[in-house]
Specification:
The complex is a heterodimer of chains A (94) and B (796).
Chain A lengths: L2 E6 L3 E2 L4 H13 L3 E7 L5 E2 L1 H16 L3 E5 L3 H9 L3 H4 L3
Parallel strand pairs in A: 1-3, 2-4, 3-5
Helix pairs in contact in A: 1-2
Chain B lengths: L8 H21 L7 H20 L3 H18 L7 H22 L7 H14 L26 E8 L10 H11 L4 E9 L13 E8 L5 H7 L7 E7 L12 E9 L10 H11 L1 E8 L17 E8 L3 H7 L7 E9 L2 H14 L5 H10 L27 H26 L6 H25 L1 E3 L1 H4 L2 H12 L3 E6 L4 E3 H22 L3 H6 L6 E10 L2 E8 L6 H10 L5 H6 L2 H5 L23 H10 L3 E7 L3 E9 L4 E9 L2 E6 L3 E6 L5 E3 L5 E5 L2 E7 H4 L12 E7 L2 E7 L1 E9 L3 H4 L6 E6 L5 E5 L1 H8 L1 H7 L7
Parallel strand pairs in B: 10-12, 17-26, 21-23
Antiparallel strand pairs in B: 1-3, 1-4, 2-3, 5-7, 5-8, 6-7, 9-11, 12-13, 13-15, 14-15, 16-17, 16-24, 18-22, 19-20, 20-21, 22-23, 25-26
Chain lengths: 94, 796
Amino acid sequence: MSRKVEFELPELLTITHIQALHEQLEALLGDQDNEVIVAQGAKVGRVDTAGLQLLLVAKTAAKERQIDWVWEAPSDVLKGGAKLLGMTQRLDIH
Amino acid sequence: MAIDLKQFHQIFIEECAEGLDVMEASLMALNAHSLDSDTINAIFRSAHSIKGGAGTFGFTALADFTHVLETLLDEVRSAVRSFNHELIDLLLKSVDCMRNMLELIQQGRNEYTAAATDLKRILEQFLAPVSVVTPDNGTGSGEQTRSHDIHHDQWLITFSPHKHFMQTGNDPLRIVRELAELTVDGSIHVTLIDCSTSFICYTPDECYCTWEIILSGANIDALIIKKVFEWVVNDCDLSIKPHARLLPQSDAQPSIWCVTFLPDPRLFQTGNDPLRIFSELDRECELISCCISTQKLPSLHLMDSEKCYLSWRLCLAGNVEKSVIEEAFEWVTDEADITIERHLQTSEMISSCNNHLSELGTIDGESRQESMVSAAPQVGREPSKLSSKKSRLPEASSIRVGTDKVDSLIDMVGELVITQSMLGQLGENFDMQHLPKLIEGLNQLEQNTRELQESVMRIRMLPMSFTFSRFPRMVRDLSQELNKKIDLVLCGESTELDKTVMEKIGDPLVHLVRNSIDHGIESPAERLCSGKKEEGTVTLNAYHQGGHVVIEVTDDGRGLDRDNIAKKGIERGLLSEQEALECTDDKIFDLIFQPGFSTAKAVSALSGRGVGMDVVKRNIQVLNGTIEISSVKNEGTKIKISLPLTLAILDGQLVRVGSEIYVFPLVSIVESIRYCSDLVSGIAGGFRVLKLRDEYVPIVELAEILGGKKIEDYSAALMVVVDCDSFKVAMVVDELMAQQQVVIKSLEKNYKPIEGISGATILGDGTVALIIDTVGVVKLAGAEKLHHKYSLCKTG
């Protein structure tokens, strides 16, 4: 049975706060039962390149492991940062 | 036999750079109202030498450009042409252009830059024969330059009435109305650019405003505009410029700038963030495309989230100078490969390029990127790879050494030869009765060697004026830009510092001076209100103190706001409210060195984004230096940088770890204590911390990190407590040995870079000892993460 996991991105998606997120994503993507990951981005209030880079790697890893990655209400800050860094298409975040 | 002139190119480039420095310094020293013939002759001679050299070596572009400039200078020195601030600006811009062209020459390109093409056209307009010669109107201004008769479509007028302007019966409104009347077939656009006074200081009949007026009209020339201001010229600051000069592209079309940005993986660790840079660029111009390359991205499991694996190619559109783009990348030039190329476009081309790019979207694809680039016309391509020394060209590959220093070296070598000859004679017929003589000879040899070493080190020393000389121009430009009056005082210019240290301290100093001007010094009106003189002072002072060179950047501005900094610190979780009350001012001020820390309400083009001070501190720490800040509200701020005289020799603490000897930079050691198991506690993940008085400090097993055997018996062990940026770390060693100066040998040059090791040295017994890079070791050990993860802080 397909399993959908929701996880909330932190308010501060920056280099000093992403270590825990990295571990959380590894665990989520390492769980073979997970088939859909819903990334809730509404609360993201600050991003930097390190934070977006981590999401990019995680999104790529999800694709490789045939896990669907779905965005839920990504904040303008998140979308704006992705746009400036040329990641919109790759993150499929609109 | 033909001589290969290429062998002289580097010398020519260096001499040119020196000539341009002379031109810039002399232009800065010139007073437009009382022309000093010696100074103007010095400028002319420099230009003439550059032109001659460029012609000799076949650098025709530079020779042609300088020829026009030289003609203009010749007219000034022979009093055919009057000299004014406008002309000084033009000549300073010419110096900048020549530096850029010299940079191209260094890359083997005999070309004009786009800015040089535009500037040459403007210089030729200055020199163009006049259709109508306007006689001197008797005002004594001597402004009958031919440039007045050149009709431009647009004029930019900066009009800043003096405070008493309205008390003399004049009214800025009347002036603006008169200007509007000139524009029968054009338009007038008035912008209030400054109105700085506080309500308390406000006096109704005083004028506090400055306006920028753009006047458009086919038949307007500078003389007509000046007539409007004829009666108020002594009661205001006035600048009248052709507006086209502000838009270097003759057709006023925006340029396309293509930027390739390949960051070093360590980029994030230096406190830099591409997102911030791109946001800044997006504010200055239009970011029409951002193509990302993700080829180097590792898997999620292998990724180190603090490393950067991405690279970008950006396309920007807008009427911006290259310097604006360079400035956005200013702090990452050492941590990235950056190329900036300009493509002059017609509007159709831009539109076509936009369509092309919108099709591309943000998809990463090298081949498609290439097709986009090749679609852009290759006209007026400008260089090039950014260098971290962009303002002083070219990168000095040689040092000019005073003959006194060379003479002293020759004397030393003479002494050495005599000692060697004496020892040689002793060796030929040696017997034990000559032993005292031998010992004396060896002592002599030691002394000679030491003196020789000191003399050679002195050769690498350059006067601080090498770095300070860039500031008068910078301060002048910034004070004009910000409408502030600033007096720059330079002291201790003859203080000498090692060439390498000198080259690396330039950029941090630029940042500090910019901060002082932007945030420190108040506007003239604000200063007058605070009872200060209108003109702010920024002082750069260098002096020797205890084997170090101290550089101070002082301003008499508004000072740091302790409460505001503390408030921001509390908001960012850097300290508690209680700590904010108890901390000394110095501790609070130190917060501004935290990454991303800014209390500025508004971000300006110069500063205020909270980026930079952390990088300044890191750059100074890399040089084994320290930075301190002191400030008094409303009185000013002093930043004191202390640097070692040279990077070639280090004050070190020798330690033994197992059977190996390592060297700690003495400056990084806070204290050393005996290992006491009562003070050590284990925490999750197998880490241990030391209770050092009222704080917990992560413990790093140096032997383990450096690939040795972990210490089994801690009873005799010691702990060296080092300062690692914002926290302390205790490193376990077996034995503390001597403190001594060590000569640093580069591992990168002689072997390969090793994480945690900054270099090596050869000890007296001939063995090699590695020099510990404390920050690197801490990172390797994961102690930094440990510190953050468990929020190790004061126990109280």
